[in-house]
Amino acid sequence: MSISSSPKVAPVVDARHFREALSQFATGVTIITTRLADGSFLGLTASSFNSVSLNPPLVLWSLNQAAKSMPVFSGNSHYVINILAADQAELAMKFARPSDDRFAGVDFTLSPTGLPILSGVAAWFECHNRSRYPEGDHVIFVGEVECCDVRAQAPLVFHGGRFLSE
């Protein structure tokens, strides 16, 4: 029997190397939407989404603590997580870039609580903002799903720093 030594591993404290390693994990792409106090809408692209529990139905996503939208998402009672379809990379980019109105020219309908559900998405979840957990430089949002729908289709995937559709 032969025992080989483990490969040298870069320390996790090297943020660039850590980020590069994380980029090798393929994730789905979401746009989280909510409403501002003035009635306008806010949305942002996020790839940090995961299921937590079936009973009760819980999902999570995370947001950088320094994000300008943090006070809105922390204070609002509800948000919608839109799971993007393979043909929606341009939409993901639109909601990832700074803009005065990310919803300009975007088709959507309203959820039961009046939040944007983007047209053409593979699935969506309307969530009650159940809890938040500050961890490192992000806040983990746990949402209790109040309603959802699915239009099964190929997903938009983020891997290696880029969007993939197949």
- Going by CATH, the homologous superfamily would be Electron Transport, Fmn-binding Protein, Chain A
Could you tell me the strand content as a percent range?
Answer: 35-45%
Helix % is 10-25%
Sheet with the most strands?
7 strands, antiparallel
- Say how many strands there are: 12
The Cα radius of gyration reads: 18 Å
Would you mind describing this structure in some detail?
It comes from Herminiimonas glaciei. It is a single chain. With 166 residues, the protein is mainly beta. The strands form three sheets. A seven-stranded antiparallel β-sheet has the order 3-2-6-9-10-5-4. The chain has a three-stranded antiparallel β-sheet with strand order 1-11-12, with no helix packed on it. The longest helix has 8 residues. The mean pLDDT is 91.
Provide a brief overview of the structure:
By secondary structure, the chain is mainly beta.
Secondary structure blueprint with pairings:
Blueprint: H1 15-22, E1 27-28, E2 30-35, E3 41-46, E4 49-53, E5 58-64, H2 70-75, E6 78-83, H3 89-96, E7 108-110, E8 116-118, E9 123-135, E10 138-150, E11 157-159, E12 162-164
Antiparallel strand pairs: 1-11, 2-3, 2-6, 4-5, 5-10, 6-9, 7-8, 9-10, 11-12
Characteristic terms for this protein:
166 residues; mainly beta; Pnp Oxidase, Chain A; oxidoreductase
